[in-house]
From TrEMBL:
<protein>
    <recommendedName>
        <fullName>ADP-ribosylation/crystallin J1</fullName>
    </recommendedName>
</protein>
């Protein structure tokens, strides 16, 4: 019997130091639950957009911004709506906070930090 590798989709998430610490506490395998004022978890579909948010929004607000990259099972992502948040390449997935635990169960491998801004 052979294991068939699950097709995955690469996603990025711009984040500040507080959220990144929570991801570290979860062994780089899951995103923390949303706060009450955060009804949507929104990873983004392109690295450039994630860099702009981390650099231009997280740094002024939090003193540091990070871009993370992670893989999610492609079949699972079909149920998450893609939202255009501006230009053609400014695309986000909208995952309702109450579905984040299930989303986390479909992450393949670990969440990695690929950029850091201060």
């Amino acid at each position: 019997m052979t294991d068939r590798q699950q097709a995955t989709t690469t996603l990025w998430r711009p984040t500040g130091p507080r959220e990144l610490e929570l991801v570290r506490e979860l062994d780089w395998r899951a995103w923390p639950p949303r706060l009450p004022e955060q009804p949507i978890f929104y990873p983004v579909l392109n690295e450039d957009y994630a860099v702009r948010i981390a650099r231009d929004w997280n740094v002024p607000r939090d003193g540091a911004g990070f871009v993370t990259r992670f893989e999610v099972e492609s079949d699972f992502l079909r149920r998450c709506p893609v939202q255009q948040a501006g230009g053609r390449t400014i695309l986000e997935l909208w995952v309702p906070a109450e579905e984040l635990e299930e989303f986390n169960a479909h992450i393949v491998g670990r969440i990695q930090v690929v950029h850091e801004f201060r």
